[in-house]
Design brief:
Number of helices: 16
Helix content: 40-55%
Shape: elongated
CATH class of the largest domain: Alpha Beta
Largest sheet: 7 strands, mixed
Strand order of the largest sheet: 1-2-3-4-5-7-6
Structural class: alpha+beta
Order of helices and strands: HEHHEEHHEHEHEEHHHHHHHHH
Strand content: 5-15%
Radius of gyration: 24 Å
Length: 338
């Protein structure tokens, strides 16, 4: 992480600023150099045409790196995804694969704006390598855009790029691959959803030189609950469990990750979820509370208290664990309002 984002700190020779109209020819030349280094780039005419449209598009965020003598070193580009920008973005086959897969459920917008930003280029003097002071400075500039929050999509055409995106907290988008730039190494699409993980934990991790925490999805939390609930009274196992990636615990510092915190928080969320659900769901959550969270009550005793068979109890527990996982992964505003 230190080398990726701060490779220029020792020399301080690179600065990043908003691009000037006079930079467009240098930007195009840098992109030509990048394409030239990609031996199996499929159709450079498409790439050139896309870049020219990007440079003319009024909402493109374009940053340029310069040295102390004001010489051009590289550039980074990002575009807010909107109904206006989307037709331009998906004209490029690689971005079409990424955005088409990510937005397959439909682009939900309010008017012309979304909270999605597509990062299209980070090109330094060592293209296509991401090593070096120019790329470090450009990546920090991109991180500043990401720190405003929202959802960020990008692509990694090479293993080095993919590793860098994952270091920054991006996650692969399933099915968002293309061989546009290379038939031997597919380009992978990535997403960083800061509406789910939270901006503050993400920025704090980057500042500490750590990989940002991965927020667990409902299915992952459900799986972890099934694993850890039978050991609910075991402090050692509970303190080291995988639930810390759930939304409820994202802001908990590592030194505060104790078993008692998990028990209290889960009991509170379970009680709140029980108050906000229907009778059948409340019964399933009650089964979880009795069978797992209540000391000295085993499954047989829980079934007796609930007046159900063991088979019915297991069906209730499966439903209740799913409901608890959904509550644990809900955004904070939904947990607060029910």
């Amino acid at each position: 992480m230190q080398a990726l984002l701060f490779d220029d700190e020792r020399t301080g020779t690179v600065r990043v600023e908003t691009a000037r109209p006079t930079d467009h020819s240098a930007i195009c030349a840098a992109w030509e150099g990048w394409l030239g280094a990609m031996a199996s780039a499929t159709d450079r005419l498409v790439d050139r045409s896309f870049l020219h449209r990007l440079l003319r598009y009024p909402d493109t965020s374009l940053s340029v790196a310069r040295d102390r003598q004001d010489r051009f070193l590289g550039f980074a580009a990002a575009v807010p995804v909107s109904p206006t920008a989307l037709p331009m973005l998906v004209e490029h086959p690689a971005l079409a694969a990424v955005l088409g897969t990510f937005l397959s459920t439909g682009l939900r917008t309010r008017g012309e704006s979304t909270n999605i930003v597509c990062h299209t280029h980070v090109v330094g003097t060592g293209a296509p390598s991401l090593q070096g002071p120019t790329t470090a400075a450009l990546l920090r500039s991109a991180v500043e855009v990401m720190a405003a929050g929202g959802v960020h999509v990008a692509y990694g055409p090479l293993p080095e790029h993919q590793a860098a995106l994952e270091l920054l907290g991006f996650e692969p988008i399933s099915g968002a691959t293309t061989d546009w730039w290379s038939t031997t190494q597919p380009t992978q699409g990535y997403v960083l959803d800061l509406t789910r993980t939270g901006v503050e934990p993400w920025t704090e991790a980057l500042a500490a030189g750590c990989r940002p925490p991965k927020r667990l999805h409902v299915a992952e939390v459900e799986e972890e609950l099934h694993r850890i609930l039978p050991h609910w009274q075991d402090d050692a196992k509970l303190g080291q469990c995988g639930l810390w990636g759930a939304a409820l615990f994202m802001d908990v510092a590592p030194e505060d990750r104790r078993a008692g915190y998990v028990r209290e928080a889960v009991a509170s969320i379970l009680g709140r979820a029980s108050a906000d659900c229907n009778q059948e769901e409340r019964f399933a959550l009650r089964a979880v509370e009795l069978a797992y969270l209540t000391p000295r009550v085993n499954h047989e005793a829980a079934a007796v208290r609930l007046a159900v068979s063991r088979a019915t109890l297991y069906r209730l527990l499966k439903r209740g664990v799913r409901l608890l996982a959904e509550a644990l992964t809900a955004p904070e505003d939904l947990r607060a309002t029910g």
